[in-house]
Amino acid sequence: MAAPTTAQPALDPLDFLALDALLDDEERAIRDTVRQFVREQILPEVGDWFERGILPREVIQELAKLGLLGMHLHGYGLPGASAVAYGLTCLELEAGDSGIRSAASVQGSLAMFAIWRWGSEEQKERWLPAMHAGEVIGCFGLTEPDAGSDPGTMRTHAKRDGGDWVINGAKMWITNGTIADIAIVWARTEDGEIRGFVVEKGTPGFSAPEIHKKISLRASVTSELVLQDVRVPAESMLPGASTLRGPLSCLNEARFGIVFGAVGAARACYEEALAYAKERIVFDKPISAYQLTQQKLAEMVLEINRASLVALHIGRMKDSGTLRPEHVSLGKMGNVRGALEVCRSARTILGGNGITLEYPVIRHMNNLESVLTYEGTHEVHTLVVGGAITGTPAFR
């Protein structure tokens, strides 16, 4: 007797493996809200922002209105959303632009998380509600001109002077730095500890000049932080962190968002390439009918679905408490590299149109060159994974 047949659902080119079914109702609702926001308020403007090299401060205020800043943290009036919900938010924001996701990520996963995880109760109560509401913008100062992948060689130092700390040094490639109201600055103390300090805008000796002439992440504010005899009170120090574990834990939070965010950039380029291929007529038929174009599109679908599954699984691990930093390194390493390949392939489908800001592809492609490097370079994450599977660290 033949087995009963079940009608198969139609195949969706935009969700080839029907991954939407793996999300619960709340996760889909959050994702759809952010997706609508991006389509209505980001996509119509972001090409112009990229061309002009700006990110209006009002965009961060809009993110705050949606409750997205520090959304995965709990207590102090914060939403306490799941890791997966936060990851899906990063995915949709980066489908708009990596700079938008970076602004939210630096605010919530770096600056806010540093205070939430390592700060005093007074610091948490003073800063976290205001940062969630977008009233206070934060940045995170760890990377230096000569200390990127090896933050242990940082030269920024803090010295006790009576009841104060005096900080000297410089930080580099700091997202939100110029527009930030506070900076979380990491410095080495006289006794060799690594300490974080909340440095407020306007403190004498502290400045945050913006970095210009970027070709990538142009819809994002990138800055230097300069500290010349910056004096801060003792209560500005984050009391919970005294080693590199402090700033590195914050970076791991931000990297988690990138695992999802890269999928958003790749998806945006694939969707544009698919639509374009169906409309572009060459030799009397759409280029989507040619084998080479179909191969490119099929490889894109494969990568996006693979990366989506990796991101979702890592998100579920984070929610269950089983996620390790090495897992995040694997996710960032694979998903960003894969997203770059998707964007580059999409650019070839669009031909000359692929290099204009009338389409999102070259913008995402350029942005991902930065994403490949920041929050740990591709090479560093490769060595993290390599060390984890062999038991032999290869950094030194």
Automatic annotation (TrEMBL):
<protein>
    <submittedName>
        <fullName>Acyl-CoA dehydrogenase</fullName>
    </submittedName>
</protein>
<dbReference type="InterPro" id="IPR006091">
    <property type="entry name" value="Acyl-CoA_Oxase/DH_mid-dom"/>
</dbReference>
<dbReference type="GO" id="GO:0004361">
    <property type="term" value="F:glutaryl-CoA dehydrogenase activity"/>
</dbReference>
<keyword id="KW-0560">Oxidoreductase</keyword>
<dbReference type="GO" id="GO:0000062">
    <property type="term" value="F:fatty-acyl-CoA binding"/>
</dbReference>
<dbReference type="InterPro" id="IPR052033">
    <property type="entry name" value="Glutaryl-CoA_DH_mitochondrial"/>
</dbReference>
<dbReference type="GO" id="GO:0033539">
    <property type="term" value="P:fatty acid beta-oxidation using acyl-CoA dehydrogenase"/>
</dbReference>
<dbReference type="InterPro" id="IPR046373">
    <property type="entry name" value="Acyl-CoA_Oxase/DH_mid-dom_sf"/>
</dbReference>
<keyword id="KW-0809">Transit peptide</keyword>
<comment type="similarity">
    <text>Belongs to the acyl-CoA dehydrogenase family.</text>
</comment>
<dbReference type="Pfam" id="PF00441">
    <property type="entry name" value="Acyl-CoA_dh_1"/>
</dbReference>
<keyword id="KW-0285">Flavoprotein</keyword>
<dbReference type="InterPro" id="IPR013786">
    <property type="entry name" value="AcylCoA_DH/ox_N"/>
</dbReference>
<dbReference type="GO" id="GO:0050660">
    <property type="term" value="F:flavin adenine dinucleotide binding"/>
</dbReference>
<feature type="domain" description="Acyl-CoA dehydrogenase/oxidase C-terminal">
    <location>
        <begin position="249"/>
        <end position="386"/>
    </location>
</feature>
<dbReference type="InterPro" id="IPR037069">
    <property type="entry name" value="AcylCoA_DH/ox_N_sf"/>
</dbReference>
<dbReference type="Pfam" id="PF02771">
    <property type="entry name" value="Acyl-CoA_dh_N"/>
</dbReference>
<keyword id="KW-0274">FAD</keyword>
<feature type="domain" description="Acyl-CoA oxidase/dehydrogenase middle">
    <location>
        <begin position="139"/>
        <end position="230"/>
    </location>
</feature>
<dbReference type="GO" id="GO:0046949">
    <property type="term" value="P:fatty-acyl-CoA biosynthetic process"/>
</dbReference>
<dbReference type="InterPro" id="IPR009075">
    <property type="entry name" value="AcylCo_DH/oxidase_C"/>
</dbReference>
<dbReference type="InterPro" id="IPR036250">
    <property type="entry name" value="AcylCo_DH-like_C"/>
</dbReference>
<feature type="domain" description="Acyl-CoA dehydrogenase/oxidase N-terminal">
    <location>
        <begin position="25"/>
        <end position="135"/>
    </location>
</feature>
<dbReference type="InterPro" id="IPR009100">
    <property type="entry name" value="AcylCoA_DH/oxidase_NM_dom_sf"/>
</dbReference>
<dbReference type="Pfam" id="PF02770">
    <property type="entry name" value="Acyl-CoA_dh_M"/>
</dbReference>
